Automatic annotation (TrEMBL):
InterPro entries: Mal/L-sulf/L-lact_DH-like_ah, Mal/L-sulf/L-lact_DH-like_NADP, Mal/L-sulfo/L-lacto_DH-like_sf, Malate/L-lactate_DH-like. Belongs to the LDH2/MDH2 oxidoreductase family. Keywords: Oxidoreductase. SUPFAM superfamilies: L-sulfolactate dehydrogenase-like. This is Malate/lactate/ureidoglycolate dehydrogenase, LDH2 family. It comes from Desulfofundulus thermosubterraneus DSM 16057. GO terms for molecular function: oxidoreductase activity.
């Protein structure tokens, strides 16, 4: 059972919690926008459901509430040091740098170190798409995927995302290197639900549908050995190239350690106008989308969707109908609100 709340109410509430925990108001606005946008699109595993753990780690000092984010530039390339700030804040600042570099040079590449879990990678790619640029984002995550043939996790679920501008909504590709994002298993464990077969193995390498055993074991890579190779590539593009932690060295904010997790990201922005007129790019994208949707349907399908289209439909639905907040999450929110002196949410 879940109660629904408007975007306006949840935005104000989440922002107040962050500010009460010591996050500066402007930074709280940035983080809140990322979380709300993610939940609007139906990615509940990476949206507002993550706020309680972020706040917990801000309050115990594991995440820096007031980071001094620094940038070192060299031509079209930059390195951002997130100073262990909230991942959403660090990632937004990093993509802003990449967009600025692309505006100057046609392409911008940013490697980011000393960061934290940044939620949905697609958000940062959409920032570039709004500027008529192609956006790409990579991040490593705590160990969750075994190398192909292994039974112990080494790589994270390591997502990669793209956004391509159109004359309407951007085409958005956002996928993890695993069969499923680990957040889906965390949410299932929190809600006491089993997970589907084929998602994960337990600590002994046996298939499991128990989310708690899955979190003790490993998530399976998408496409077998190909997913393992993709996870390795993302690890290089985020952890290795940025100077961040990598592999088992990446921390997990859900454990009891107080050490920074030191997650790494990278961001790419490409100015479409340096390659062709933006209107021409839009026309070519629109033609491709029309031709894809014109492909004859396979049995059991009613229509062909373009990547990102389902999310856009969900966002439009939730803008009018509200964002669902589960009973467990509502309790977490209101317990935090009372501790921080914020007015609780009323169902």
């Amino acid at each position: 059972m879940a109660d629904k709340f408007s975007v306006e109410i949840l935005t104000k509430f989440c922002r107040k919690l962050l500010v009460a925990a010591g996050v500066p108001e402007g930074d709280a606005d940035v983080v809140t926008d990322v979380l709300i946008d993610t939940s609007l699109e139906g990615i509940d595993t990476h949206g507002i459901s993550r706020l309680p753990i972020y706040l917990s780690r801000v309050r115990n000092g594991r995440i820096n509430a007031r980071p001094r984010i620094t940038v070192e530039r060299s031509g079209a390339v930059a390195v951002v040091d997130g100073d262990n700030g909230l991942g959403q804040l660090v990632a937004v600042r990093s993509m802003e740098v990449a967009i600025g570099l692309a505006a100057e040079y046609g392409v911008g590449f940013v490697a980011t170190k000393h960061s934290n879990h940044f939620g949905a990678a697609s958000y940062y790619c959409k920032m570039a798409a709004r500027r008529q640029m192609v956006g790409m984002a990579f991040t490593n995550t705590p160990p969750g995927i075994p190398p192909w043939g292994g039974r112990r996790p080494y790589f994270g679920t390591n997502p990669i995302a793209f956004a391509f501008p159109t004359d309407k909504h951007p085409v958005v590709v956002d996928m993890s290197s695993s069969t499923v994002a680990r957040g889906n298993i965390i949410l299932a464990a929190k809600e006491g639900r089993e997970i589907p077969p084929g998602w994960a193995i337990d600590a002994d390498g046996r298939p499991t549908t128990d989310p708690k055993k899955a979190l003790e074991g490993a998530v399976l890579p998408i496409g077998g050995a190909k997913g393992y190779a993709l996870a390795l590539a993302v690890e290089v593009m985020s952890g290795i190239i940025s100077g961040s932690a990598y592999g088992p060295g990446v921390g997990w904010i859900y454990d009891d350690s107080l050490e920074p997790v030191n997650i790494g990201h990278s961001f790419i922005a490409i100015d479409v106008s340096r390659l062709m007129p933006v209107e021409t790019f839009h026309e070519r994208m629109a033609d491709m989308i029309r031709s894809i949707k014109a492909v004859p349907l396979a049995e059991g399908f009613e229509r062909i969707l373009i990547p990102g289209e389902r999310r856009q439909m969900k966002a439009e639905e939730r803008l009018t109908g509200g964002i669902p907040v589960s009973e467990n999450l509502l309790k977490e929110f209101n317990d935090l609100a009372r501790e921080l002196g914020v007015q609780p949410l009323e169902a």
